[in-house]
TrEMBL record:
UniProt keyword Transferase, yes or no: yes
GO BP terms: methylation
Protein keywords: Methyltransferase, S-adenosyl-L-methionine, Transferase
Annotated protein name in UniProt: Uncharacterized protein
Length: 195
């Protein structure tokens, strides 16, 4: 999934699968039975330390998540048309390595999604290191196993300016058996240009 923050502080969320987009729409509407994000929102309020009630943040998030669009990161135009205005920031979590068959496709996907960002815009990327599969129910889905050097090379190849890269080894207590992930990377990168 990808999220983009536009100049009007609106959030654009995207996913390849209609079922995932529908789940997001149901959460925005507040339908019963959707995934409960409140523990995560409460945690964010706690670490931000501004005393903001989590219910206010949840309401604001729902009201700003205005567009939920289909995406294919393998297309040069991932949304099928340019995003207007281009986003100030883009967040992608555990997506590109899960949908790319090899390093070249991963780099191209990064370059494709950078077209959604304005020059000078920020990309925050989270992903798996050393993962070759994950289980979705009983289905085993392949993942491109990356190491830190692969991530650096791909960012450079896609034209991003790397600001910060942190890699963590997955502690044994978080190895739950649903995948063979070895670690996690966190990236802050910038699209060149702009102010
Ligand atoms: C491993 S899941 C990660 C989901 C979520 N971001 C998370 O952190 O749990 C990979 C996601 O990539 C999406 N996806 C699959 N093919 C894609 C494509 N070609 N372009 C963009 N997203 C794709 C899937 O629908 C799924 O939501």
């Amino acid at each position: 999934m990808l999220g983009c923050w536009g100049g009007t502080h609106c959030i654009v969320a995207t996913d390849y699968l209609e079922v995932n987009r529908e789940e997001l729409r149901r959460w925005v509407r507040g339908d019963p039975g959707t995934f409960d994000w409140s523990p995560f929102i409460q945690h964010v309020c706690k670490i931000e330390g501004r005393g903001e009630p989590w219910q206010d943040k949840q309401l604001r998030l729902r009201s700003r998540l205005r567009r939920i669009l289909p995406i294919d990161v393998h297309r040069p135009e991932p949304l099928g048309a340019p995003l207007q205005p281009q986003a100030d920031a883009l967040l992608s979590a555990f997506c590109l390595e899960a949908v790319s068959p090899d390093g070249a496709a991963f780099t191209r996907a990064l370059s494709n999604v950078s077209s959604l960002l304005r020059p000078g815009g920020h990309a925050v990327l989270l992903g798996a290191l050393g993962e070759s599969f994950y289980l979705a129910g009983s289905v085993r889905l392949p993942v491109l196993p990356l190491d830190e050097a692969d991530v650096r090379r791909a960012l450079h190849g896609a034209g991003f300016e790397l600001r910060r890269l942190r890699c963590y080894v997955m502690p044994p207590e978080l190895r739950t058996g649903v995948d063979d992930v070895q670690g996690v990377f966190f990236v802050h990168a910038r699209k060149p240009g702009g102010e």
